[in-house]
Amino acid sequence: MRTVSMCFSSFSQVPRCRIYNLAHFWSERFHNLSRTCGYNSSSKLYDSKIYVLDGGNSRKWTRRSVTTNTQGRNKSGQCSDPRKLRQEILDVTVSTSATLNLNKIETSQYQQIQHVDIRQLIAQNKDLASLVTVIAFDTETTGFSREKDHIIEIALQDLQGGENSAFQTLVNPERRVLNSHIHGITTNMVNRPDVPRMEDLIPILLKYVKSRQKPGGCVLFVAHNARTFDVPFLCNAFRRCGVDIPSDWLFKDTLPMGREAMKSEGSKPSSRSISLQALREHLGIPLDGSAHRAMSDVKVLAAVFQRLTYMLKLPLASLVEDAFTASEIGTPKKKSSR
Q1: Distance between CA atoms of 139 and 122, rounded to whole angstroms?
Q2: Given 150, 183, 224, 292, the catalytic residue
Q3: What distances in angstroms separate CA 164 from CA 158, 168, 252, 258, one per listed residue?
Q4: Closest CA to 119 of 246, 222, 249
Q5: 89, 102, 256, 326: least CB-packed within 10 angstroms?
Q6: Can you give the pLDDT at residue 171?
Q7: Pair 69, 42: CB distance under 8 Å
Q8: Domains and CATH numbers, the chain
Q9: Between 8 and 197, where is the model more confident?
Q10: What pLDDT score was predicted for residue 132?
């Protein structure tokens, strides 16, 4: 049995991220799907569960059972008139057929609710953004090649804060680390039996994210240079272990946000001026810990993200609409200066 070492914390040092103009509550509700058919017979989907939205001040998705109430026209089971008997057989045939069709219709609509792109829903109703969980994350790796190199440290922080809102661990790449001069992580620090391999870590990581996720909502992961570095590394790590990135995980890159913020101030942004550490210095955010260590960078990122959303006046709904999924990662590129 392998004993691995990871760190969960409340991350009380960093205040909760106050994203500009956050949405508050859901304003529309999905109705229970129901249908009726003729011959005084009413049918609903058997033993099915659909998502509905509870009312009140703390609205959330819940599952409710949809029961069946089917009644026939004649319960006596006997009929002396052959014409009536034929009509009753026809009634039962129509009722059964209608029930089967309802199963198909309601199941199809339920699947649409389950698999619809959350970005489209939020574009139509900004208030749905209240169910989005925002998690800042950062990775340190053995190099810049997303195909050949591996993650050696990962840190995440739920920007809502609270108990166990932060997660950080080294990762055993089962190979030498040749770029220790960048992040200070050496081969001896990670190639140890008590440091989890990625295949050991993924189930724990999924449980951590699930514990922070709001019922019925999605997760927006925020990273600096996410599209060309952190997210591709994360996707490849999952792929090597035969695990898919969950479909309700969205990703937001703060590097373009930094570029836009610099332009809004009349500056001409360069790759160096929009690195995470350059933005930290420009915005007057103090460094907490060593630069290029995952948790230290997450703390900086949380503060930078908060400032950028305020400067650009970006509501959470806009951030989600502009986010990307793991399947939308483009052609490999090198990571720019951080």
Answers
A1: 29
A2: 292
A3: 9, 11, 23, 29
A4: 249
A5: 89
A6: 98
A7: yes
A8: 111-326 (3.30.420.10)
A9: 197
A10: 94
